[in-house]
Amino acid sequence: MMSAPENLTSHGLGLGGRILKMLGLNCRNMRWSITAEPFSSEILAQLRVTSCFHFFPSAFKGLVRMEDFTGMLTPSESHSSFPFYPVTPPLSSVPSETDLTLKVSTDVTRDDIPVVAVVGVGYVGKHLVSSFSSKYQVIGFDVSERRIQDLRHEFKGNENVTFSRNQNNLIAATHFLISVPTLLRPNKSIDSSYLCDALEMVGRVARRGSAVVIESSVAVGMTRELVGPIATKLGLFAGMSPEVCDIFTDQYLLMILTLTNAQLQRVDPGRTEPPIKSIPKIISGLDDILPGSLDAINRIYSTIFDNVVTVSKPEVAEMMKLYENCQRMVCIAYANEMADACIAHGIDPYEVCSAASTKPFGYMPYAPGVGVGGHCIPVNPHYLLSNSSFPLLDACSQAMSNRPAKLAQRLIKSLPITERRSRVLVVGLGFKAGQSQLDNSPGVALVRELAISGAQIDLTWADALVKQEAVPQVPRLGECEWNKSFLETFDVIVVAMKQHKMDFSLLAKLEGVRVESWCK
Q1: pTM for this predicted structure
Q2: CA 271 to chain CA centroid, nearest Å
Q3: How far apart are CA 218 and CA 320, in angstroms?
Q4: Where does the record place the UDP-glucose/GDP-mannose dehydrogenase dimerisation domain (predicted)?
Q5: CA-CA distance, 15 to 218, in Å (whole number)?
Q6: Distance (Å, rounded) from C-alpha 443 to C-alpha 463?
Q7: Bridge partners for 494 per DSSP
Q8: Residue 85 has what DSSP assignment?
Q9: Strand-strand pairing, 281-283 and 308-310
Q10: What is the spatial distance between Cα 52 and Cα 13, in angstroms, rounded to a whole number?
């Protein structure tokens, strides 16, 4: 059993420096730049991270020093009433946990029975645990105690699954699947800190001959830049396989499934069809760094997924995932522009979408909305833009980011000028139907823009799955108040997303209330 790793916060070097020091590599020959001072508590509190690699802008212009963008928040982001919601705590803040009893050999060989470590068991990681545990022992690792407890309860009875927050329990693993969040900072630069933390940990516990696969979405070239040095030094097979989570919100899925009966090509959060094992799985390997990487990854993935598609190198897999999601960003932005034009002409944009969808070929339906949420479609354009020029994508991303503010201003201008304050209700704050998470939620963005607008309105929000403490700055409509009598006390009701467990048929029965529905 290897000794417990040293405290991650005990060095003055940033994470990049620590991992290079651990691997015995010369920092002068690398493209990292290393901060010599720890970040201020103010920055840490604002960004909810403790460490990251600091790239020179020439490599990935989206990856910059954290200190350089202090105070560069947009008016909405800097408003004190709407703090950023943390995701999971940093790895260095995780307390120790009792080690499991594991017997391991020095190196991993082809004859070893696979033990799969899933690092990061959020939505994508949980599905990886479920899939790989059908045939192998799986260790799910996460830094969130609450998530670990929830998953232990959810997977109770599955003898192939163990969950832990102690990285020493991963030394029995032969395969490491990394599915941690890859996020954006407030100024839209790439926050790779979770991925870098995960790679540092893997570098501490992985044995020679293990396989490391990046499942998280990353910028083109990041797998090679981040994993390559570790694979070279430690003799690890390495590659990239984009996660199979879909970025559609339910309104877009409803359009596709209802109007075209199209089968989805990626899994959508909250959906069970098609089964994840039946979705084509793209894999790649860093064979030019460690020959046999693709074969090592293919051997285990082909036992889990019905259709494994190999590509020549990780850069192809990285670009494929970003191209796929960013194509949707462009199409949805176009649908929003179409909707705005329809409104100006007195046309129902959803009727236009429905009519266009009757064409059986050459058209993919996209419905307009308040925006898009989650960790894929709002984020992925910035990963492409970090080291490539995409003027059209850049414009679409900006339009999508500005859309909640645009709709808020349109609503405010439409309100009658009266002595009393107008009552406005925004419905649907989860980033998609069936979800309580607020990650890049369009509904939250709309509420935020209305709240800070200075308009004379009384603002309320409603969502059956989101609790008041998630957005404490604006009052939440209670479940008992979701009735015709109380809803008619509002002047305007904006439906950003149709949340589950809410009777939306009531809205059609309201009298004297303007209802704007941005979903079908």
Answers
A1: 0.74
A2: 17
A3: 11
A4: 316-388
A5: 18
A6: 10
A7: 426, 516
A8: P
A9: parallel
A10: 11
Strands 183-184 and 190-191: antiparallel
| Confidence grade of residue 276 (pLDDT, cut at 50, 70, 90) | confident
pLDDT at 58 over 70: no
- Please answer whether residues 133 and 158 qualify as being in contact, where contact means their C-beta atoms are separated by less than 8 angstroms: yes
Assess contact for 305 and 279: CB atoms under 8 A: yes
Tell me the pLDDT tens digit for each residue of 368-407.
Answer: 999 988 888 999 999 999 999 999 999 999 999 999 999 9
- pLDDT(303) > 50: yes
Which amino acid, one-letter code, is at 353?
A: C
CA distance 72 to 480: 42
Separation of first and last alpha carbons in the chain: 56
Cα distance between residue 281 and residue 517, in whole Å: 36
> Measuring CA to CA, which residue among 113, 112, 140 is closest to residue 128?
140
Distance CA 294, CA 265 (A): 23
What lies within 8 Å, CB to CB, of 6 at 6+ separation is none
Burial 93-128, CB ≥16 within 10 A → b, else e = ebeeeeeeeeebeeebeeeeebbbbbbbbbbbbbbb
pLDDT of residue 42: 36
Average pLDDT value for the chain: 80
- What is the distance between the alpha carbons of residues 493 and 480, in angstroms, rounded to a whole number? 17
Two structure tokens written together for 171: 């030394």
Structural domains in the chain plus CATH codes: 15-78 (no CATH), 91-249+258-314 (3.40.50.720), 327-517 (3.40.50.720)
Residue 382, Ramachandran bin (φ over 0: left; ψ between -120 and 50: alpha; else beta): alpha
262-281 burial, b at 16+ Cβ within 10 Å, e below that, comes to: eeeebbbbebeeeebeebeb
Task: Count Cβ atoms within 10 A of the Cβ of residue 389 and give its class: 0-12 exposed, 13-18 middle, 19 or more buried.
Answer: exposed
Residue 154: CB atoms within 10 Å: 14
- Residue 315: other Cβ atoms inside 10 A: 16
Query: Nearest to residue 380, comparing CAs of 250, 274, 242?
Result: 242
Burial of 391 from C-beta contacts in 10 A (0-12 / 13-18 / 19+): exposed
For 361, phi then psi, to 5°, come to: -150, 160
Report the DSSP beta bridge partners of residue 237: 211
**Residues near 336 by Cβ (< 8 Å), separated by ≥ 6?**
368, 369, 399, 400, 403
Predicted confidence (pLDDT) per residue in 306-351, tens digit: 999 999 999 999 999 999 999 999 999 999 999 999 999 999 999 9
Rounded CA separation 81/496 (Å): 21
* Length of the chain, in residues: 520
Kindly state the average pLDDT of the residues 1-20.
Answer: 38
Q: How many CA atoms lie within 13 A of 54 on its CB side?
A: 20
Cβ-count burial 357-375 (b if 16+ within 10 Å, e if not): beeeeeeebbbbbbbbbbb
Q: Which residues pair with 88 in a beta bridge?
A: none
C-alpha span between 87 and 314 (Å, rounded): 27
